[in-house]
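[audit] Reproducing an earlier prediction to check determinism. Same input, same settings, fresh worker. If the tokens differ from the archived copy the diff job will pick it up downstream; this log only records the rerun itself.
[audit] input (480 residues):
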Amino acid sequence: LKCEDVIEAYIDRISVVEPYINATVERSIDVALKEAREVDSLIASGKYTKEQLAAEKPLLGVPFSVKLFLNVKVVALKQVLCLIGYLNTAGCRCFENMRATNDAECVRLFKEAGAIVIATTNVPEFGMNTETVNYLHGRTKNPYDTNRGCGGSSGGESSLIGAGGSVIGLGNDILGSVRIPTHFCGIYGHKSTHDLVPNKGTCPPDRFEKMQGAYNILEAGPMCRYAEDLITTMRVLAVGDEEIRRKIGQPVDFKKLKVLYLTEIGMYLMCPIRKDLTEAMKNVGSYFSTRYGVEYKEIKLPFLRKVTKCFISELQQLIPNASSGFLDGIGRPLNKKWDLIKSVFGKSVLSFNINMIMNFADFPLVYRKSENSYYNKMWQEVVQCFDDLLDENTVLLLPSFPTTALYHHEMIFYCLPCCPYAGLFNLLGLPATQCQIGYDSEGLPYGVQIIGRKNNDNLTISCAVELEKAFGGWRSPGKV
């Protein structure tokens, strides 16, 4: 089997599924096939042994897709000389014609490891939504039920991989942007310990760097159809700490494992976890207990009830900084309240959802800037509580989202009440691996996120690999 055959197979698969799911923004077929032929020539030359290729190019010839929020440069062919890079729109009309001029760091690492870009994938406008829809590229659908959403903001990525149109991909996670869509689409994703994977190159170019605070909770990371691919991809990506990188893929003694799970976070205004998802967590704990004789138990964290406003405070300090970085591209001052009114009638360059989110940051009944110091002190206490809870052999189970995939337009009501299930661990900087576990009575996939102590990424990923063997992992939504 040649690399060119593999790339052609995935290009063909995308052509089959794309009319149903609308996951991709751009495909560079000629460039991908050219790179595949170069891989075949390299292998045929005998210049490197298999062992050398495995060590130096662990992703050689592997097709991958990339979330639209990550810069991707194109090596132009004669047929596509007009392209210097893939579109870099962030799903917003004010960046409609913007293209990347270089690769994001994580994209560069994948390319240097030998992987081949086959497509970029859709995102919500500015990434500020858990449903992937925007004015420029339309609505992306769930491969298991096209009447439902695929999550966000890495929704196009998860939909394409879940549909079999890609095998690995790159997303980035801010408040669950990798874990929620992978939960909805039945695949695997990893949000690393903070700063383990480089974030540089998030689009739009030169704007994300201006968003003070956003980098503190943003993590680029892999999204994969198979859990074991998280090991290979994270070995490529985890350049922020060589010690952690070396540990990834090392054997774990599951007999020392301690499994904790939460059936509720306890924060005010939160949506409850659906019963079958609670049972899934218990089944995971039961599996480890039966197979390895380890302890598993439900825990309560009553201190989280006190930090609802603290969590909102963190978000509301982030939103103005994040949105201002994007809004530099509009080219005019933005009156948030007036633009909200205009968006109701479709007259704003921004959607109604984005205008609502930006105005949320100024809502005084929820949040007061004068209380920031109090909230920040309380947040440090939360960080310490989780540090005490999680040791080197302990994982915490919690769904990334309390339901399976919702119907289109429903997510607007669930976004904020469900945000802390995944977003809490961005703010804490802890590693969290989304693991596919099963399917509900309607055939919709669901999973569980496995959270570990800071720098303990290998444990959460290893648990996902073990659970894939036990529960079966990804299942195609249709004939392949």
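[audit] rerun output stored. Observation attached for the diff report: The first helix runs from residue 3 to 21.
[audit] end
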